[in-house]
Write a sequence for this structure.
């Protein structure tokens, strides 16, 4: 009985290690997609006094540059443009095509995959 308990504890530790590795890989994939999406975002220009001084009303936060404030259709539109995917392609099909071109597995819903 003691041997079975040790084997179960060892199996549980192995599952935990595998889960942590999978989570780390997912985080790396997400970061890669966010960087790619950020590269698609227009960079804000220097602040202009005519536009209200500090930022001129433009979004300058990291979350905005990373595309987090954009809607799903806006994110997909940038992805379509970046990968040359037809605008007539459905949202799920565009995400699947982008994942294939980027060599990424389709994990999570469309929102998670689009970043």
């Amino acid at each position: 009985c003691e041997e079975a308990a040790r084997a179960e504890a060892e199996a549980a530790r192995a599952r935990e290690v595998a889960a942590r590795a999978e989570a780390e890989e997912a985080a790396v994939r997400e970061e890669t997609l966010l960087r790619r999406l950020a590269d698609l975002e227009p960079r804000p220009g220097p602040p202009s006094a005519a536009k209200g001084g500090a930022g001129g009303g433009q979004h300058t936060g990291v979350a905005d540059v990373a595309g987090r404030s954009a809607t799903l259709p806006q994110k997909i539109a940038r992805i379509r443009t970046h990968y040359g995917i037809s605008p007539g392609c459905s949202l799920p099909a565009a995400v699947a095509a982008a994942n294939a071109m980027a060599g990424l597995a389709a994990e999570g819903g469309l929102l998670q995959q689009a970043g």
About this structure: The chain has five helices and no strands.
